[in-house]
Amino acid sequence: MSAILVAGTTSDAGKSVIVAGICRALARRGVSVAPFKAQNMSNNSAVCPDGGEIGRAQALQAAACGLDPSVDFNPVLLKPGSDRTSQLVVRGRATGSVNARNYIEHRTHLRQVAAECLTDLRRRFDVVICEGAGSPAEINLRATDVANFGLAEACDLPVYIVGDIDRGGVLAHLYGTHQIVGAGDRARIRGFIINKFRGDQTILDPGLVQLEELTGVPTVGVLPFIDGLWIDAEDSLQSPLGASVGPATPALGTRRLRVAAVRMPRISNATDVEALACEPGVSVVWSADADQIADADLVVLPGTRATVDDLAWLRRTGIAAAVTARVRENRPVLGICGGYQMLCRSITDPVESGSTVPVDGLGVFDTDIVFHPDKTLIRHEGGAYEVHHGRVARSTEQPWIGDEGARRGVIFGTHRHGHLEHDGHRRAFLRDIAAATGRSGFVLAADTSFHAERLRQLDLIADAVEQALDLDGIIGRR
Fold first, then answer.
1. CATH code, residues 240-449
2. Which of 377, 418, 398 is nearest to 232 (CA)?
3. Average pLDDT for residues 393-407, to the nearest whole number?
């Protein structure tokens, strides 16, 4: 069946968003459609119903299609643990660590795995919308490419190239991508897509005409900048310091709740805090400032792919001292996954850090964490999930969620991601935080739906895609 590849001139050019929008638009028309990304590099992941792990962006794209996430949608996932090494996840399961050099040795096998998954999806769905990785112009990697023109060649895919005009230089990016790739790859490019355009398009149009004259490739659509858009980030690096999270909706009462989410160097599954931010009157920012963390109503320590190393970073920056001071004053702190592990008494981690010697945690919870080679992958009822190597070896703490995690007053810890996406759980949690911080003027909405807001975001993208692109022409139905 029909399949296309959406590649980008750069990372964060808008591939994930546009693929999600195309998927959503086609699904609304009743088309049987699925997303696909052969190889992803991201620490933001989700757990599928079968227990496998995929990139969070592909889970969002699956939701856009009306599907549960599946390992078939993202067969190869790289999760960076340092600047030089990444955990390799193949068809949802961790298979070890690789560096940039020895990863090349795996690529022939991985390209075969990706091609087999895509071939199977094309049998099961009418349309498959594939997303490239990084930039297809990295000609030094072309011989072993898994996700861009290597996939397009192996599976005979037409390619559309996305450029982000908001970054500047988009015409040069598109032209340069077209010129630097080989002739065979160049022949696969069916069109350019401009993303995040603001202003009067008649000023841009002459440039698009000249671009087509130079390359022979038409610009098939110009998507507008969608103000207020927030969806799951592909890469935690898209969450810069000081950036607000979520829609920043107005407060219903006279007071707001201020949440500081700690932006750790190896942060993972950073999307957990978006559920808090969707509530009216809850302001969430990414922070690495000890004073801001000391002053916030709630501090969130999110997940990380390097718990021991990021704990050392917390101590160097003074954030650890600010967190423990909050604990002494019984002021709210929430630790999720790696952040929860940091709040424990000790961490023994021969898996990520390679050390068999226990490391002192922050000592908030009387709990010991031991890392195991086998990763825990659990999807709970309601969509919450766990993805971690660290396990509770001993604890005297009161559990917080079911028989898992820990709670001591208004200090919370859990291994579960996505727990706060459940509207009832989130509201109960925020009531406790508001009461503990004396925010009597904070009014909690009774009807906020995180999943409805997420669907509304997908519909915003789909509306823009419908207006900008000839979808029937792109998927070969005209």
1. 3.40.50.880
2. 418
3. 92
